[in-house]
TrEMBL record:
It comes from Candidatus Afipia apatlaquensis. Pfam families: AIRS, AIRS_C. Residues 33-137 form the PurM-like N-terminal domain. One of its GO terms (biological process) is protein maturation. Coiled coil: none annotated. Gene3D superfamilies: PurM-like C-terminal domain, PurM-like, N-terminal domain. InterPro entries: HypE (IPR011854), PurM-like_C_dom (IPR010918), PurM-like_C_sf (IPR036676), PurM-like_N (IPR016188), PurM-like_N_sf (IPR036921). Belongs to the HypE family. Residues 151-307 form the PurM-like C-terminal domain. This is AIR synthase.
Length: 330
């Protein structure tokens, strides 16, 4: 099997399709494109999301905190805390675990969440540090947003730019390889993208405005996130390549490694669908968040395309992330 997330068809057949119990308290169940579960607790609802960090050798503590909390934010809820599971290889030291927890606690402090507990062990089952977090959030009953709410005619808006997480990881993990292929300033700029991966502000704004859907663009990048919204909503989409924001650092790194920036890990970019464009972009701008209108949701679920140079190109379901497809010159 290929490295990365299971394809949607395989996920439905072997994972989601095997879930038998559906509790009435659960408002949002497991499904393709739904990163969060929502549980009714009376006046409030509890929002839960879980994610591992496996593709990065750098920033794993910071990524582990932000990736799962970003999913909570994509539901328009406030993240309150995380449970952390650390699987450490036999080659690690006590200092490695100490430094990892410092990074996790620093990241948690920035976004004001508590580390609620978890599990830590050294195991021969892994050959590098693996960190998985489960984030817990709170929101008003009926006030949550799902990936399945996109409506025909909605605008598709993205914040910041694509590939932020993947660019930062590649620049940090392969810094020596990039030297001589990129300028020192570009490498440092690319590494600094790790500071932009939180989308909690975007989630609060989207929740307040009642947008139709939100999705944090993680594995599979922009195209994966938009495809998952469309799949969850049983809709189609058209994207306009010229409108998609991509920095020169991301473009250069993707060119060097022979990968597609549109399918590269993109935590830090929120995909939002909304009926009204101006109020959303104005609210984002007021918080200092750049945004771009990159397309529309369409009614035909079989038409999922990106328009390049006047031509429509079909967008396939997300496969493994481009982070796992990098190529090196001999």
């Amino acid at each position: 099997m290929k490295i990365g997330k299971l394809p949607a068809e395989m996920l439905n057949k072997n994972i989601i399709g095997k879930i038998r119990v559906k509790r009435p308290e659960v408002l949002v169940h497991s499904g393709i494109g739904e990163d969060c579960s929502v549980i009714n607790f009376g006046n409030d609802c509890c929002v839960l999301s879980s994610d591992p960090i496996t593709g990065s050798g750098s920033f794993i503590g910071r990524l582990a905190v932000n990736v799962s909390c970003n999913d909570i934010a994509a539901s328009g809820a406030e993240p309150l805390g995380i449970l952390v599971t650390i699987m450490a290889p036999e080659s690690c030291s006590e200092e490695d675990i100490f430094e990892l927890m410092n990074e996790i606690n620093d990241a948690a402090s920035i976004i004001n969440i508590e580390v609620l507990g978890g599990h830590t062990e050294v195991t021969g089952a892994v050959n590098k540090m693996v960190v998985s977090t489960t984030a817990v959030g709170k929101g008003p009953e009926g006030g949550y947003i799902t990936s399945s709410g996109a409506k025909r005619g909605d605008y598709i808006v993205v914040t910041k730019s694509i590939g932020l997480e993947g660019t930062s990881i590649l620049a940090s993990d392969h810094e020596k390889y990039l030297e001589g292929r990129m300028s020192r300033d570009q490498i440092e700029n690319a590494k600094s993208y790790i500071n932009k991966i939180s989308v909690i502000k975007e989630g609060v704004i989207g929740g307040r405005l009642g947008v139709s859907s939100m999705h944090d663009a993680t594995e599979g990048g922009l195209l994966g996130a938009v495809w998952e919204i469309a799949e969850a909503s049983n809709k189609g989409f058209e994207l306009y390549e010229d409108n998609i924001p991509v920095t020169s650092e991301t473009r250069n790194i993707c060119s060097i490694f022979g990968i597609d920036p549109l399918r590269l890990l993109s935590s830090g970019m929120m995909v939002i669908t909304a009926k009204d464009l101006a109020p959303l972009q104005d609210a984002l701008k007021n918080q200092g968040i750049d945004s771009s209108n990159i397309g529309r949701i369409t009614g035909c679920s079989k038409r999922r395309v990106i328009i390049k140079g006047g031509q429509e190109i079909n967008v396939d379901p997300p496969q493994n992330d481009e982070l796992f497809n990098i190529k090196f010159d001999k």
